[in-house]
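Entry for the shared binder. Reason: the reviewer on the internal report wants the predicted structure included alongside the sequence.
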Amino acid sequence: MKALVFEGKIVQIEAKKFPVSPELVWINLVGLTPQPKVGWSYDGAVFYPPPPPPIVPSLPDPGDELNASLVALKGTGATVDQLIDVLMGKTGKGRVAGRSN
């Protein structure tokens, strides 16, 4: 297999070479382990895999907490101020029963 490299990146892999623009270069991949793939970098001597994608932590949906709070307060007779306190996370024991600031 042959890698077609452009600006230090493998852009295509083929079994046989074919004519290409002078900006592109063919590099033989036979015998390389691990076998480089499209997207790998080439520094003129060594192939490098792309860096792993960043790990993005899964964040909770803020709407879930809001919905749960509203469902819990439905029919309790809570005042607007009490609802705001609950939604802002200012709840504690007995907090919904009366406002204390």
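Summary line for the report: The longest helix spans residues 62-73.
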